[in-house]
Hints:
The structure is a homodimer. By secondary structure, chain A is mainly alpha-helical. Chain A has 2 domains: 4-86, Arc Repressor Mutant, subunit A; 90-174. Chain A contains 8 helices and 3 strands. Chain A has helices spanning 4-17, 19-22, 26-37, 44-51, 55-67, 90-120, 126-154, 157-174; strands at residues 42-43, 71-75, 82-86. In chain A, strands 1-3-2 form a 3-stranded antiparallel β-sheet. In chain A, a hairpin with a 6-residue loop joins strand 2 and strand 3 (82-86). In chain A, helix 4 (44-51) crosses helix 5 (55-67). The two termini of chain A are 30 Å apart. Chain A binds a DNA duplex through helix 5.
Amino acid sequence: MASTQDIRQEFVQLWGTMGSFWGVSPTTARVYGWLLSQSEPQTAEQCVEGLGLSRGAVSMACRELRDWGLAQVERVEGSRQQAYRPETDLEKAIRNIVAMRKRREWDPILEHLREWLPQLERDRSPDAQVFRERLQQIEGLIGLADSMAESFLKGGLVQKLGLKLLVAKASAARGPRKKR
Amino acid sequence: MASTQDIRQEFVQLWGTMGSFWGVSPTTARVYGWLLSQSEPQTAEQCVEGLGLSRGAVSMACRELRDWGLAQVERVEGSRQQAYRPETDLEKAIRNIVAMRKRREWDPILEHLREWLPQLERDRSPDAQVFRERLQQIEGLIGLADSMAESFLKGGLVQKLGLKLLVAKASAARGPRKKR
DNA sequence: CCGAAGTTTCAATAATTATTGAACGTTTCA
DNA sequence: TGAAACGTTCAATAATTATTGAAACTTCGG
């Protein structure tokens, strides 16, 4: 049967594979997972030992975590060491990630689309017409996603929408029983 | 000034960089972009010429697009060639992508979490306690994301929620004028 | 059944991305 | 001020992922 230590390692590994999902390297994600799995803030040394990474890799991962607002650095009492405290409010963590990816990735795409659309209007060929319509559709959809992201960043979309969905899900489960 | 051809190339390139966003290789994403940018379904040969890719790469990209439900294959009249027609309903496209990623990536994570949680209860140390609470939080949040994804897949979340947001956005723009 | 036209496969290679570790900084305190 | 303890950087290297292209396969008309 798996010990807490085993599960911790498996969790850290799994969490690492999700790195690409939110745009960081597996190592950075693993370090965040490691921090989350511990009750106390961890020093770089502890991360090195726990994860089998090089000193440099831990340093870079922790810096990236700080850039994303996913960890804070603290001084350890009576030592020169630093310890990293993870952001444990996951909704806040997600909000930080969404904000950064939106700024870095979506916003430039929207800009490009809005720059291209007027230029395409000058070409009256049916082919260019279709292309323009497609870009317009894309612009609309990404614009919508952008609004949703913004709304999420401002308030608690998760609270409002999430609760509604959970209630709906619960009542659906209560009513017609699960098939099979 | 940029011609339609130039813009098409830039768009295809940009679209390619978004591949990692939804979990396919840049080439696959570029081929989808190319198909979207054309008014008529394209043969493999046309993709090769338009994108400067090898025959094999186009073949693999198109297969992946079919797997994701993002393109259909059609026979060309009076020829043995095939032509690829892209899914142009973008909401449907997104739904396909969400469905596949959910199945491939989120669902296994949820399974693991639900397998680990009971095992952690046997360890009564305060450390394991904290770890368990963190995993519980994660499980709750991913579970919520899962419900939201499911709701999106079933009905038109975009229609319902999107319209609401668009209206809110429009009225905000009407009221207080844009700053600067 | 043959061969031409087209498509797919996959081992080899190229390109990209992640990781290391040794050298360089910085801080602290005797 | 010096040296020990710790942190950071980045060029070199390793690992991973994407792409090619030549060989194998399929389909179809004659």
